Amino acid sequence: xxxxxxxxxxxxxxxxxxxxxxxxWEGMRNDITAVMLAVLGAxxxxxxxxxxxxxxxxxxxxxxxxxxxxxxxxxxxSSIAVNASNVFWTNEGRTxxxxxxxxxxxxxxxxxxxxxxxFTPSSVAANSTSVYWTGFADGTVYSVPIEGGSPSKIAxxxxxxxxxxxxxxxxxWTTYGSEGACASCNCQCGTTVFQGIIGSAxxxxxxxxxxxxxxxxxxxxxxxxxxxxxxxxxxxxxGGTATTIWSDAYAAASLAVNSTSVYWTLRALGxxxxxxxxxxxxxxxxxxxxxxxxSSDGATLAIDSRNAYWVSIxxxxxxxxxxxxxxxxxxxxxxxxxxxxxxxxxxxxxxxxAAIMRFSLSGGGSPSVLATDGDAPSxxxxxxxxxxWTDYDGxxxxxxxx
Length: 402
Fold this sequence. Notes:
With 402 residues, this protein is mainly beta. Helix content is 3%, strand content 48%. The protein has a single domain, classed as TolB, C-terminal domain (Neuraminidase, 6 Propeller). The relative contact order is 0.18.
């Protein structure tokens, strides 16, 4: 099985991306959670395959699926990926340096920690040998053997690396860049100077000064002018120098690849939504093509063999992967994360009406509600048999049959 077919993970609206519109770190920390979601479509059942059950206790064909809980008690689980044997996810952690990268068997069991002490791990991918993730707050792209060990650094000094995907030979990731705010963000905790996060709000400070005081917040000192731009990067899985596929004055956000091309979304400089875009470039090098532009924060993206899918403010959009006319799949103001393959298109809705939903492959019609457990589905991954997702607020990793 190839890497691409093994790991069908979702690309979801980043909490950190949304929080950059708030000021200051309070928007990132206290609610990286409260920024999104709520419309439910016609309710239908799930497939009867797998281990899930319906709300009536019968197989999933009879009603809403009751998810199997693969893990609970997690500390803000955010991204998720799956391979032939295991499910992987990242926990952002509630304090700096407490993020983790986790693993559990697809059939369930006791979760294991693959990496700890992480600084806001924000995206994860896996193949049959290794797990890969981005450290949003420390500017590093990591890998670790699938059975555990010491993490390796694939790339360092990346300006807020966000989404990450892999294929059989390469790893790809996006960076927000400095978003035009500043090149260096200097903060202070007592007598210690440390680097904050650069976003549309400027220089945002976060640090755990002590167990008693917890985080400090507020603005630090911006230096260095405009800083760097957003990028789309590529590096060999086997190790080697990272190369730049694209760089410009916009933040590159979500990312997807197929056998020939790289696709990514843009969010406007400074965190605005007026100049979002969907971009495409050849893997082997060449100019980037703009497939669509419009109002979007660029924070969701998924592809299948026919179309690319993303959220444009209140519209769930699609466009042929080679370009053409964009069309709306559904009008949903609170759709937070999406995943797609040739078997289906799925999304997660936040809030009081939180749900995992399935959309028509042909477009149109009402989405089907598959499960309503949890409050904050933050990422979705797919394999041939099941749908997996993380619930950020509930601290759970869940599964239902397709």
